[in-house]
Design brief:
Distance between the termini: 29 Å
Strand order of the largest sheet: 1-2-3-4-5-6-7-8-9-10-11-12-13-14-15-18
Number of strands: 18
CATH topology: Porin
CATH class: Mainly Beta
Radius of gyration: 20 Å
Largest sheet: 16 strands, antiparallel, barrel
Low-confidence stretches: 2-14
Mean pLDDT: 90
Number of domains: 1
CATH architecture: Beta Barrel
Number of helices: 3
């Protein structure tokens, strides 16, 4: 890993064609959240990475970045910190790796083909790990429970301005360091309104007896007019089980609508459903697994070009009691109120 980071750093130190090819940036996202179940530890349910804490002023995410964008080479090095980082990278055995949001170098192989290598954001999912890029402040359940990052190599073929194909060869499902003897592959196809992503790999995710995993992510998004934006996602995953030679499946879907109120204000609406009765992807230790409906309403106010105040109300209902509450028990219902101040530099 040290050699990888040194190599990526050297890429940025090589003479650039112009000073404009290097882009510096940073982002700070702070929040305060109230959970209706009032969990005694202030830790919210662990299948959500944002917000992670109840009744606590928190640094959700802060990062600094340097990006290289040139005709023949590209890359990004970004270091991060925050409560969502702690949640999202909890499985990494080397905790120092949590500070790496992205660290990759890319070269153009021909007129339309790129090769990137290192640590980069995952290709799967409808929403970004960086909150300011999403219509809603919190992330949907299907986005929060797929990889946000990956480690490996990717080939990107840019057919034209509208269509992009990617092939990923990865260490695994949301992991930087290799955790078994197999590599995983992922593929992506994207045009102006439709995206298909997948993942195929031999993974021990929720139990030692689970192995080969597939995941398929279908996304449709379109700006309907100057006011309304539509995003929808349908995901299906399968997990092979060695114990009974069976295959368990899970499904997730979400519908997100963005509304521009005026030059300074926006609204976001989301409804979603997640069905993982076999606990193949989300472990709950409950009778019916993870079966949850959620809805949310988001309000954004742009205080300046680079500063935004965001607030969201969100509700959850589960078939089983899975949401921790103050008495140490588990509730089928959960409500969330969160407000955030985000600044880009």
């Amino acid at each position: 890993m040290k050699k990888l980071l040194i190599g990526i750093s050297l890429l940025f130190l090589l003479p650039a064609e112009s000073s404009s090819s290097l882009i510096l940036g940073s982002f700070v996202d702070t929040n305060y959240a109230l959970d209706s179940n009032n969990p005694s530890s202030r830790e919210r349910a662990n299948f959500q990475t944002q917000p992670a804490k109840h009744n606590e002023f928190n640094l959700n995410l802060a990062f600094i970045e340097v990006s290289l964008k040139e005709p023949e080479r590209r890359g990004r090095l970004a270091l991060q910190y925050g409560s969502s980082v702690d949640r999202n990278y909890a499985a990494e055995s080397n905790k120092s790796l949590q500070t790496i949001q992205e660290a990759y170098a890319g070269v153009k192989l021909n007129e339309k083909l790129w090769l990137d290598a290192g640590i980069f954001f995952s290709h799967i999912g409808i929403e970004s790990f960086i909150s300011k890029k999403n219509i809603n402040y919190t992330r949907s359940l299907n986005a929060d429970n797929v990889p946000y990052y990956a480690s490996g190599v990717r080939f990107e073929y840019q057919k034209n301005d509208q269509e992009v194909f990617q092939l990923h060869i990865l260490n695994g499902w949301q992991t930087i360091q290799e955790n078994n003897t197999s590599k995983a592959i992922g593929m992506k196809y994207q045009n102006s309104s439709f995206t298909y992503n997948n993942f195929l790999g031999d993974e021990k995710v929720t139990t030692p007896k689970s192995r080969f995993r597939t995941y398929h992510n279908f996304v449709y998004q379109k700006k309907l007019n100057s006011i309304w934006t539509l995003q929808s996602s349908f995901d299906v995953g399968t997990q092979s089980q060695l114990e009974n030679n069976g295959i368990n499946s899970w499904y997730a879907t979400s519908l997100i609508i963005g509304q521009k109120l005026n030059a300074l204000s926006d609204m976001g609406y989301r409804i979603e459903y997640y069905l993982d009765r076999h606990q193949s992807n989300i472990l709950t230790d409950s009778s019916h697994g993870f079966q949850v409906v959620s809805a949310s309403v988001n309000y954004d106010r742009n205080l300046s070009k680079d500063t935004s105040w965001r607030s969201e109300v969100r509700g959850f209902y589960s078939k089983d009691g899975i949401f921790p509450e103050g008495r140490g028990s588990l509730n089928r219902w959960d409500g969330l109120l969160v407000t955030s101040l985000g600044i880009s530099f």
